Amino acid sequence: MSETLDGIAREVVTCTRCPRLVAWREEAARRPPKRYEGERYWARPLPGFGDPRARILVVGLAPAAHGGNRTGRIFTGDRSGDFLFASLHRTGYANQPTSTHRDDGLRLRDVYIAAVNRCAPPGNRPTPEERDNCLPYLVRELRALPNVRCIVCLGMFAWNGAIRALAALGHPLPRPRPVFGHVADVQVGPYRLVGCYHPSQQNTFTGVLTEQMLDDVFARACS
Questions:
Q1: pTM for the full model?
Q2: Domain coordinates in residue numbering, the chain
Q3: CA–CA separation, 164 vs 141, rounded Å?
Q4: Given a cut of 60, is residue 129 above it in pLDDT?
Q5: In the predicted model, what is the mean pLDDT of the chain?
Q6: Of 23, 84, 142, 149, which is most buried, counting CB atoms within 10 Å of its CB?
C-alpha cells in the first residue's frame, strides 16, 4: 500500500527513537541564545517539505538546533538556509529568497527538501545508530515522491545517507562505491545523485561554496 507524505510527516514529528537527540533538541529549546529568548521552539523531529510532484530531492544532514529545531521547518531560520533558499529562488525553484518561519509564504516548485536525520544532533554529528534509526523516513519519502529523478546531496553525510537509502530501495550501487565530491555525479538505478558542498557558514564564509557554485548545482540537477 502506498503512503502519503502527510502520513510520513505525522509519524516523523512524534518520533522518539533516539533518546540522546530527544534530550538535545529539548535542551536547545529550554536554553536558547539571547537573540531567540522568548520564542516558542518546535523542538520535535522535522519532516521533509516542498513540492510533492518534485523531480529534485535536496538532502541535508539534520536540522540546526536554533534553525529548524526552532522554526519547525528544515533549513529555515539559519544561515545555511539563507544561502540555500536564495539560490533556489535565483534558479526558479522557490517563490521567494528567504525562509524565516513555517508560515512565511515560501513555496517550492519541482523541489522537495529532506534530511538524513530529523532531530538536531550535538555538534552536527549523529551517531551511526541515530542515522540508521532515522534513515527509513528518507526511504519512505523517496517512495512517496514518484517523480524524483535527481537527488542533490548537501555534504558527505547526506551523500552517504542517500546512497544507503537507495540501497534500501533495492537499487544496486555502482562499483566502486560512489565517492562524495562537489558536483560528483552518478546514476543509481533511476536516480541521479549530484554532490554539493554543504551551505554552512564554514563553507560559504570562506569561499569553499559560492553563490555561483550552488546555482550551478541546481542548473546541473535539472539538465
A1: 0.96
A2: 5-221
A3: 14
A4: yes
A5: 96
A6: 84
**Architecture in CATH of 5-221:** 3-Layer(aba) Sandwich (3.40)
- In angstroms, the first-to-last Cα distance of the chain is 32
CA atoms within 13 A on the CB side of 8: 23
| Residue 134 burial (10 A CB sphere; 0-12, 13-18, 19+) | buried
Residue 1 pLDDT more than 70? no
SS (H, E, C) the chain: CCCCHHHHHHHHCCCCCCHHHHHHHHHHHHCCCHHHCCCCCCCCCCCCEECCCCCEEEEECCCCCCCHHHHCCCCCCCHHHHHHHHHHHHCCCECCCCCCCCCCCCCECCEEEEECCCCCCHHHCCCHHHHHHHHHHHHHHHHCCCCCCEEEEECHHHHHHHHHHHHHCCCCCCCCCCCCCCCCEEEECCEEEEEECCCCHHHHCCCCCCHHHHHHHHHHHCC
The owner of cell 525562509 is: 99
Give the separation between CA 8 and CA 197, rounded to whole angstroms: 28
pLDDT of residue 6: 96
Cα–Cα distance between 165 and 35 in angstroms, integer? 37
Q: How confident is the model at residue 200 (pLDDT cuts 50, 70, 90)?
A: very high
pLDDT band at 193 (very low <50, low <70, confident <90, very high): very high
Asked if residue 102 lies in contact with residue 72, where contact means CB atoms within 8 angstroms, the answer is yes
Q: What is the C-alpha separation between 88 and 168, in angstroms, rounded?
A: 29
